[in-house]
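So, can you check these tokens?
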Amino acid sequence: MNNNTYTVICGHYGCGKTNLCLNLAIEKKLLNPERRVIVVDIDIVNPYFRSSEYGNLLTKHGIELIIPSFANTTLDTPTLSPKIFSIFTAENADVFIDAGGDDAGATALGTISRQLKEQDYEMIYVINKNRVLSSSPENSLILLREIEGASRLQATAIVNNTHLGVDSTFENSLESESFAKEVSKEANLPLLYSTITDFAAEGREIPEGFKKIERLVLFPWEMEEE
């Protein structure tokens, strides 16, 4: 065991886990600038909406990024960088692992499952009621078990990140809480909080049990405009 923290962010495609991962990493760095914060992108399935695309943002905040060997190239070979194992020898580090969606992406996570089990890791399962394959508590639970099986790791908590992209509303977030509580009950895992995107909050007071997060992950054409 070391004095590092390890937080795995997993979930179905489109649940918003990458956006949550970036928010949590930046929040951690702002709270304790003296500690290292490392984001590890092991999403080797989805070429879009991944942490690897936000290296400049993370660097701006003093956050390190470890990416798959083929990230930001034209290659499509699912290879993890050997550098990923350096997170287990780092010191004074808070590590956030952006895992791939579903069981296919979570398989890559299984390559470091033994090392993670030797640490006091947290594995957050991100849910989004508005995704077709996870629109019911039953389906969300099935997806969770597939991810756990493929990664050989157990989820420790749930975050409700129900959203509609740029069409997200304050009311939509509030209405999803009952769904999140049902998933939490079925999975027998604590619900850490439900999220509300900054623009959807519209300056309103954030209710207890909710957390405001920034929309950091952009559409490809928005990134081109920047």
User: Anything to note?
Assistant: The two ends are 42 Å apart (CA to CA). The chain has nine helices and eight strands. The chain has a mean pLDDT of 87.
